[in-house]
């Protein structure tokens, strides 16, 4: 698949690049995408939720009524879950939500996400982007020139570019990461992928490992 290379002003540079078929041309595996996104979201959970059980409530331990003769059920403690303010039955406890996913499945998921974006024509290749200084205004203008204002964008660079990262981090719906940092969740969450020309070769090298 051939795509046009745009400059930072949104203009056609006259160049075209061929997206690697082994990455962008595969049939997306939806189940692999689901598993990788599920793992990513599970890893974000702190798992610190906790409800007090009957042994942890700060209430009196005296027997609240006599055992027999009341006509009702026996009741030995105000901490019982059947009373208001009592302990919680089977309440949440701290736990780790993370789970293992094979490297090949994660690689397939990332390839599938890139291929899905390519099929949806949601990938733009950008000539190498450089900013002389970290200025949010410059990055806003960059998005405006590409007609992407207000849309979720993910810019993929070959290496960390401090000026670009600092210029974009205060803009909503905008994310910048290197080719080595990409994950399936962010790829699928973006409306438009912006990939620098150098990052394409970096992606190919990473997936060939």
UniProtKB/TrEMBL annotation:
Region annotation (Disordered) ranges: 45-76
Gene Ontology MF: a single term: rRNA binding
Domain of life where this protein originates: Bacteria
UniProt GO cellular component terms: ribonucleoprotein complex; ribosome
One Pfam family named in its UniProt record: Ribosomal_L4
One of the protein's GO biological processes: translation
Keyword field contains Oxidoreductase: no
InterPro entries: Ribosomal_uL4 (IPR002136), Ribosomal_uL4-like (IPR013005), Ribosomal_uL4_dom_sf (IPR023574)
SUPFAM superfamilies: Ribosomal protein L4
Keywords: Ribonucleoprotein, Ribosomal protein, RNA-binding, rRNA-binding
Subunit organization: Part of the 50S ribosomal subunit.
Family named by the database record: Belongs to the universal ribosomal protein uL4 family.
Annotated NCBIfam families: rplD_bact
Described function: Forms part of the polypeptide exit tunnel. One of the primary rRNA binding proteins, this protein initially binds near the 5'-end of the 23S rRNA. It is important during the early stages of 50S assembly. It makes multiple contacts with different domains of the 23S rRNA in the assembled 50S subunit and ribosome.
HAMAP family, sorted: Ribosomal_uL4_B
Name of protein: Large ribosomal subunit protein uL4
